[in-house]
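Data card: per-record layout.
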Amino acid sequence: MNFHDRDLYLTYNSTTHTILKEKKYFKYLTLIEANVTTILGLTNMIKGSGRANILLPNNTKLGIRDALYSLGSRKNLLNFNDPHANGYHIETIDEDKNEYLYIISCSSGQELILEKLHAFSSEIYYTIMKSIETNVVVH
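The structure for this 139-residue chain is written out next.
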């Protein structure tokens, strides 16, 4: 399995913040220096925070409040603990001994599977993301 710089890791329960490594995903960005605790310990890799918008492969739009901007991050990391903020809900599904994360929309009592994300390991999922065309406002 090959991953590229544009890949996005989605974590289901273990991440407390969304961390994005490129300004292009932000609609509003306030530049700040901040520390964050990673698996390797405390680091000052955060360079800003703000509102971000991303687009998943099936054109599912996600708006993220309070995303963190980090040039030093090797991968994008999305906290998906509050999908309801975008009007979606999530389910983990096992199919043919493989685990998936479904992003689901409910409309008029009907469920529609918008995205099916593959598991990298238990409760960590991945997909490709794109930026939504916007002008970034930097403070």
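Known properties of this structure: The CA atoms of residues 54 and 132 lie 6 Å apart. Residues 7-138 form a domain with the Cathepsin D, subunit A; domain 1 fold (CATH 2.40.70).

See the next section for split statistics.
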